[in-house]
Each structure stands twice: as structure tokens, then as C-alpha cells.
Amino acid sequence: MREETMGRQMIDLQRIGVDGMIDYAITLWNYTGSMFNWFLNQAGWIPEEGKKVITEWINTNRKGCETFKDAVDNGYSNLEKFLESA
After folding, report:
1. Residue 37 and residue 35: Cα distance in Å, rounded?
2. CA 16 to CA 72: how far, in whole Å?
3. What is the distance between the alpha carbons of residues 52 and 34, in angstroms, rounded to a whole number?
4. pTM score above 0.85
5. Helix, strand or coil, per DSSP, at residue 69
6. Is the separation of the CB atoms in 18 and 72 below 8 Å?
7. Please, what's the b/e burial string for 58-72 (b: 16 or more CB within 10 A of its CB; e: otherwise)?
């Protein structure tokens, strides 16, 4: 029983750390996107196609972080279900 509790605490601690890291990455991409959008609006010398590519790059990275977060959350949920059934 004690091993099960300790195992759960270790998993919870790891999950908190991973969630914090992913949330930080998403926040960083949101901030980066805001800064790039501000810059792109000020830089008249950048062609529209270049602005579009940069915007797509930012959105792709943000979506990648969110997809990764969903996969990690799903993995932890599956691990918790496994531990409950064991």
C-alpha cells in the first residue's frame, strides 16, 4: 500500500513538472507570436508572403505544443487507469 502511494506521488510530481514546462512553452509561443505580429505590422519592407510564412510558423509551433500537451495528458490518464486497475 505504501509503495502504491509513493508511486502515485512520484507520478503526480512528474506530471506537475511536465505540465508546467508545456504551459511555459505555450505561453512563450503566445508571447513570441504577439511580438512577431507587432514587428510584422511595423515592418513595411517585409512582403506579405514573408509575413504569412512567419505567422504560419508561429501558429504551427503553438499547435505543436498544444498537441504535445494533449498527448502527455492522455498518457498520464492511461497510466492512472492502469494503476487503478492493478
Report:
1. 5
2. 11
3. 14
4. no
5. helix
6. yes
7. beebbeebeeebeee
Using DSSP, state whether 1 is helix, strand or coil: coil
Q: How many residues does the chain have?
A: 86
Q: Is residue 27 within 8 Å of residue 53, measured between CB atoms?
A: no
- pLDDT above 70 for 45: yes
The whole-angstrom separation of Cα 53 and Cα 38 is: 15
Distance CA 70, CA 19 (A): 10
pLDDT above 70 for 1: no
Compute the distance between CA of residue 42 and CA of residue 36 in angstroms, rounded to an integer. Answer: 10
Q: How many CB atoms lie within 10 A of CB 45?
A: 6
